[in-house]
Design brief:
This protein has a 5-stranded parallel sheet with strand order 4-6-8-9-10. A 3-stranded parallel sheet has the order 1-2-3. By secondary structure, it is an alpha/beta fold. The structure holds beta-L-rhamnopyranose and manganese (II) ion (2 copies). One manganese (II) ion binds next to loops.
Length: about 400
């Protein structure tokens, strides 16, 4: 790395934080089964302890996203949860309402044709807004499982209108410092027509909802071959990119470790963000979040691996020479332009990461430090015992 490269990469790392998901530390699985891991988090206390441990080792994960029904018990004081998180060195980040688990949502939540179910779904979201205010969270992160499975099953336009109405009502309930993120997903669990199936639909709905509604891009929620960085560039240009859910995919919504399949894809996404910042001379406000569930890898190891990969790719993307790129683009020098991206992508940013970690009194290699720390062994022994006491010893299955 040149001196300029080192400087650029370090600057980039200084401003990069990524949020871990509480559910990524717990025993989650595939639709067909769940394989318990001794060290997996059992309750919210375990989840924030794990998130705090990841932050202590990586120095760039100060917040943890929560899923309302999985992390909060009815009647519980949310401020107590925020205090617990803080004791472990992290803050509560995005609040994710749950609009898919309850039996009432068989025919959808915001898109349901029963106004009573729509009202209950909206109320749950409004309660989640209040919860967010109580814990000082900036983001309400919305994902809807809504849609239909067969042609003719529902009115596509009718459902669109229902979404417009509820999202507008929800936007009106936001506090002045809150932003709502609208996530899209092409299919699953609805296999014929998901109500918010792509970024165009999410964009339209967010625009209609109000100025503090933005689009959330889950990297796994795209068809194979879709150009995600182009979507990102368009959303940035419209000031409508609110955040990311990071994961990687090979086929569909696989929730694999970020960069495990195609690291260049994530680099290109980061490049669009750096290029936007270079052109506009301002950094867009983006919530970088992880959305991964690991069934085979250790939860903490996979999370650390993800965070380190995100830092590496973000630092690499910071190395693109934007002036040279603009010149090459102006002269249609295709090869030179492409090579500028490739050069940055293939630069070894290890020295910059080492520097940055040293400057922040962090371990040189967070994964190695985690393995040496004994955290997992202690957590496994403690949680194995508690799981036995609670009778949580049987694996879940599909039927
Ligand atoms: C979805 C989507 C959401 C997540 C749920 C559990 O596929 O990615 O973000 O909250 O899964
Ligand atoms: Mn997601
Ligand atoms: Mn997903």
């Amino acid at each position: 790395m040149t001196r300029t490269d080192l400087h650029r990469a370090r600057e980039a790392l200084n401003s990069f934080v990524v949020e871990t998901p509480s559910w990524g530390f717990a025993d989650t699985g595939t639709r067909f089964g769940k394989f318990f891991q001794d060290a997996a988090a059992i309750d919210f206390g375990d989840k924030v302890a794990d998130a705090g441990h990841v932050h202590a080792l990586t120095g760039c994960c100060p917040t943890v996203a929560v899923h309302v029904l999985w992390d909060f018990k009815a009647g519980e004081d949310p401020k107590a949860a925020a205090r617990l998180a803080r004791r472990h060195g992290v803050k509560i980040g995005a609040i994710n309402p749950n609009l898919f688990q309850d039996q009432a949502y068989k025919w959808g939540s915001f898109g349901n044709n029963d106004p009573k179910v729509r009202a209950a779904a909206l109320q749950h979201c409004v309660d989640s807004v209040a919860l967010g205010q109580a814990v000082g969270s900036e983001y309400l992160s919305l994902w809807f499982a809504d849609g239909t499975n067969y042609p003719g099953q529902g009115s596509i336009r009718g459902r669109k209108h229902a979404f417009e109405e509820s999202l507008r009502a929800l936007h009106a309930a936001l506090g002045p410092k809150q932003t709502m993120l609208v996530e899209y997903k092409p299919f699953e669990p609805a296999f014929y027509a998901t109500d918010i199936a792509d970024w165009g639909m999410a964009l339209l709905l967010a625009k209609k909802a109000g100025p503090r509604a933005k689009v959330l891009v889950d990297t796994g929620h795209h068809y194979s071959g879709q150009n995600i960085e182009q979507i990102v560039a368009w959303l940035l240009d419209e000031d409508m990119l609110g955040g990311f859910h990071f994961n990687d995919r090979r086929y569909a919504d696989d929730d694999l470790t970020l960069g495990s399949i195609d690291p260049y894809q994530i680099f290109r996404v980061f490049h669009e963000i750096h290029a936007f910042a270079a052109d506009r001379r301002r950094w867009p406000k983006i919530a970088y979040m992880i959305d991964q569930c690991h069934n085979e890898k250790g939860k903490i190891e996979a999370t650390i691996q993800t965070v380190v990969m995100a830092q590496e790719l973000y630092a690499k993307a910071a190395l693109v020479d934007h002036q040279a790129l603009r010149r090459a683009q102006a002269k249609n020098q295709v090869v030179d332009a492409e090579l500028l991206l490739k050069k940055a992508f293939f630069t070894d940013v290890a020295p910059a990461l080492a520097d940055w970690r040293r400057a922040n009194s962090l371990p040189a290699d967070p994964l190695v430090a985690h393995r040496r720390s004994g955290y997992e062994r202690v957590a496994a022994a403690d949680r194995r015992r508690r799981r036995q006491e609670l009778g949580l010893t049987r694996g879940g299955s599909f039927a």
